[in-house]
Amino acid sequence: TRGGDRPKVTIVEYGDYGCEACAMLEKVLVTLMDNYPEVQHIYKHSPLSEGGRYLAEAAEAAAEQGEKYFWEMHRRFFSANKSGWSREETSRFVFRLAGQIGLDLGRFKKALESGEPRKRVSRDQGEFPVLETPTLVINGEVVGAIGYEDLKQIVEEKLKGQSTQASRVSW
């Protein structure tokens, strides 16, 4: 969770680290969070590929050493060009990144192998029936993937206490 402790608007994102639209949405959400401190962003894992699942588990393993590590992995996973990577290349990237951000690599590896991150990812996946990523739920309303201007409009309506009839907008 990032953003205010007493949010007026909560955006729950169901995403996949292997999804290009999710990577684009991350940039939109960072800008939105910078401009609207009363917005809270909750990221839920909904990996649609094995590579995305491994990255989700790695982010959760990092979170065991502090939430800041989760968000740093999150940011870097979305900014990396992971297209066509093998499991070995993905694993090397994850462990190199874990070292770069200051994780205790022994603890990280142990956490990843413990199965707890897998359980947390599975819990997120079972929470809401996501057919595509990203899927956004804003104050309880399912929105889907949208661009910055549309998201900004929805947030402003929510801040004013209005209901939204959001439509899906292509990237």
* Strand residue content: 5-15%
Number of helices: 7
Strand order of the largest sheet: 1-3-2-4-5
* Whole-number mean pLDDT: 90
- Give me the secondary-structure category: alpha+beta
String of helices and strands = EEHEHHHHHEEH
Radius of gyration: 16 Å
The count of β-strands is 5
Helical residue percent band: 40-55%
What does this structure look like?
This protein is an alpha+beta fold and 171 residues long. It has a five-stranded mixed β-sheet with strand order 1-3-2-4-5. The protein has helices spanning 20-35, 50-63, 67-79, 87-100, 105-114, 116-127, 148-159; strands at 2-3, 9-15, 39-45, 135-138, 141-142. Helix 1 (20-35) crosses helix 3 (67-79). The model is unreliable at 166-171 (pLDDT under 50). The protein has seven helices and five strands, in the order ββαβαααααββα. The radius of gyration is 16 Å and the shape is globular.
List the helices and strands and how they pair.
Layout: E1 2-3, E2 9-15, H1 20-35, E3 39-45, H2 50-63, H3 67-79, H4 87-100, H5 105-114, H6 116-127, E4 135-138, E5 141-142, H7 148-159
Parallel strand pairs: 2-3
Antiparallel strand pairs: 1-3, 2-4, 4-5
Helix pairs in contact: 1-3, 2-3, 2-4, 2-5, 2-6
